[in-house]
Specification:
By secondary structure, the protein is of the alpha+beta class. Helix content is 32%, strand content 28%. A hairpin with a 6-residue loop joins strand 5 and strand 6. Helix 2 packs across helix 11 (347-358). It binds glycyl-adenosine-5'-phosphate. Glycyl-adenosine-5'-phosphate binds next to strand 13, strand 16, strand 19 and helix 11.
Length: 474
């Protein structure tokens, strides 16, 4: 298990502007999180590295960005409407609800009563919504209204509240049922539903993959462990289409590639563990799944999954839509529905593992120091530039000049003149800035600046015009 405590990460994330509780000003909304200026930068760096590694640097990968709202038939065909559930129990004493498989015993964690749980019920985790102005309730429940006109682009109809209530409700319920949609619980279905489009546009040879990054939503019964189990989160997924008899080889290749990517995120291999998920615990679509687990502070838990989804999804789409999802090998009559290997990463869980792996404490001049030993390519700020003293106009002018020059070259550069130089170093260490550059009186004389290294705290002098070449930012 991680030696870093959850509280250390949560408080650093809040203090330094990485992650805040969602809707905090109104008391929060459970299972939602807002990314602050440094959090969004770190998250994007992780997502961009993933996109570069698995899409841009490869020949056979195609990116998509599908709509979050999809036709309800997608979720019926995929099995999510029927089976995307967690077991829910309610305490008959305090009426709090819990995920049955997360309970340690039959004692209610809220009121302490034992034996008060009923039989678990299947709770569907999809967020349901209605698309279009078909939900009549807001209009017809006006207490004084006897009738109302509801207008839509396609039709106008009158609701007679007194006479036709039953009829109108029946009609509205039908309309609503037809217009129900769900916030997607995985990005994968946006890939599967575009399989035919990508094949028609590009006709790639097998194997090839379609990748997508984006938000996913799950109405988790008990969101917890910081961003680990959220109700709104982001996924980075690939559906990798292969010939049915080639799935094992592709599976092994992805296993290797995933490990290399995690190392590139700065996550030590000894904290990552592969767990072969037994059949009874696998998702309904999977014939084989390996969970890549990380030693989080709460416990060793799933960071990402690698699954063999067979032809489950494409065959279901084919059956439900009546459209062929078969692929023909070029120049042959060899036609079949491809099988699929799916590496599925959660951004929040990756970000948490990155923060936990980078979190370091040491002692400098007899004082405890906290710093994030982030890989340079992930650091939200690459370089901080400061004047030694903020009340000396000649130092400020030079510092702004150096800052402007570096910002143009490197982008993620911060001007920092808050507090004294010691405080600035401490703050930059805590957000993982690899280099701090200080402009002092010597700069004005000989054109050199101090460059301080985050990990060693060593300082050296570098000519301003040599800075961009001198900084190791890979
Ligand atoms: N398309 C396959 C799929 O969605 P999953 O194991 O349900 O599989 C994939 O989810 C990944 O998404 C997980 O390994 C995890 O990283 C992330 N994830 C799932 N539920 C999450 C939640 N409630 N909060 C944060 N991340 C979550």
């Amino acid at each position: 298990m991680s030696e870093v405590k959850m509280d250390d990460i949560v408080s650093l994330a809040k203090r330094r502007g990485f992650i805040y509780q969602g809707s905090e000003v109104y008391g929060g909304l459970s299972g939602t999180w807002d990314y602050g200026p440094l959090g969004v930068a770190l998250k994007r760096n992780i997502m961009n590295l993933w996109w570069k590694t698995f899409v841009e640097d490869r020949e056979n990968m195609y990116g998509v960005d599908a709509a979050i709202l999809m036709n309800q038939k997608v979720w019926q065909a995929s099995g999510h409407v029927d089976t995307f559930t967690d077991p829910l129990v309610e305490c008959s004493n305090c009426h709090n609800r819990f995920r049955a498989d997360h309970l340690e015993n039959d004692k209610c964690p809220a009121c302490g009563k034992t034996g008060s749980f009923g039989k678990p019920k299947a709770f569907n985790m999809m967020f349901k919504t209605v698309v279009g102005p078909v939900d009549l309730d807001p209009q017809i429940s006006l207490p004084t209204a006897t009738s109302a006109k509801i207008k839509d682009n396609n039709y106008i109809y009158t609701v007679d509240w007194t006479k036709e209530k039953a009829e109108v409700e029946a009609r509205s319920h039908d309309e609503i049922a037809l217009n129900v949609s769900y916030l997607r619980p995985e990005t994968a279905q946006g890939i599967f539903t575009n399989f035919k489009n990508v094949v028609d546009s590009f006709y790639p040879d097998l194997p090839f993959g379609i990748a997508q990054q984006g938000k996913a939503f799950r109405n988790e019964i008990s969101p917890r462990d910081f961003v680990f189990r959220s109700r709104e989160f982001e996924q980075m997924e690939v559906e990798y289409f292969v010939q049915p008899d080639k799935w094992e080889e592709a599976f092994e290749q992805w296993r290797t590639d995933i490990k290399a990517f995690l190392a590139n995120l700065g996550i030590p291999a000894e904290n990552v563990h592969e767990f072969e998920v037994p059949q009874a615990d696998r998702a309904h679509y999977s014939k084989r799944t390996i969970d890549f687990e990380f030693d989080y502070p709460h416990k060793r838990d799933e960071l990402l999954g690698l699954a063999y989804r067979t032809d489950f999804d494409l065959t279901n789409i084919q059956n439900a839509s009546g459209k062929s999802m078969e692929y023909t090998i070029k120049g042959t009559n060899d036609k079949f529905v491809p099988h699929v290997i799916e590496p599925s990463f959660g951004v929040e869980r990756a970000l948490m593992a990155v923060l936990l792996s980078a979190y370091t404490e040491d002692e400098q001049n007899g004082e405890k120091r906290i710093f994030l030993k982030l890989p340079v390519h992930l650091a939200p700020v690459k370089v901080a530039v400061s004047p030694l003293l903020r009340n000396k106009p000649e130092l400020v002018e030079k510092a702004r000049e150096v800052y402007t020059m570096l910002k143009k070259e490197l982008g993620a550069v911060m001007y920092d003149d808050n507090g004294n130089i010691g405080k600035r170093y401490r703050r930059q260490d805590e957000i993982g800035t690899p280099y701090c550059i200080t402009i002092d009186f010597d700069t004005l004389g000989n054109g050199t600046v101090t460059v301080r290294n985050r990990d060693t705290t060593e300082q050296k002098r570098v000519q301003i015009e040599e800075l961009v070449n001198d900084l190791d930012l890979q």
